[in-house]
User: What shape does this take?
Amino acid sequence: MRIARVITSGGVTTVRVDDDGSFIPVDDPYAAFAGGKEPQDAAEPVQPVQGDLAPPCTPTVVVGIAQNGPGHASPVQAWLKSPRTVTGPGVTVRLRRDAGQTVAEAEVAVVIGRDTTGLTAENAHEYVLGITAVNDLSSPDRAVVDPRNFESKSGEGYTPLGPWIDTALSLDADLPMALLADGVARAETSAGRLPMTPRGCLAYVAGWTTLGPGDVVMMGAPHSQAPVHAGETVEIVIGDLRLSTPTS
Assistant: This one.
């Protein structure tokens, strides 16, 4: 199932994305996940809704996995990114002019479905609602004076997320990954090149802090990052997920 959130005249509505692209309201997907089932179509309204896509979840915690790419065969490392940087598909992000170069990173984002107490590498899939795409925008030049990543990762809107959560995607899938700017590929790779597996990363994070429904873990960039410039439209491709972010 593809689960999204749509901005309607009555507020934000959780929907499933039908095969024809229409948005069908559904019940709380996290409550359904806790019950071991998929969300059912909402009783009211019974008709599809229209509107722009919001971020597919509203995380309380956003975790990044550090140095999870070729050439970084170090133990799992993690860091926190403010959930206030999360924005939805198609929202224009203004790149900071005072922070040097901006880099976009195409990453697999795992959306947690329930309290992660008891999560291990072996059973991690039992705690995951699904997978979405994330554009982990960064200002890496700030790392010279900011080794903890606060400044380099805190730009307004620097975590575009979406367009929806795909509950059918496996944690173990070698998903194709690409980063495009104005339609031109700047990086192409796959999730299979992550030296630390999503399962291992989730087990590490859950071993230190409890995550909950809607929280997000970004799995790192296995050669899936490139500099981007104001005015370009950045597209993140994770399998069949395509997340578009205009910049200014």
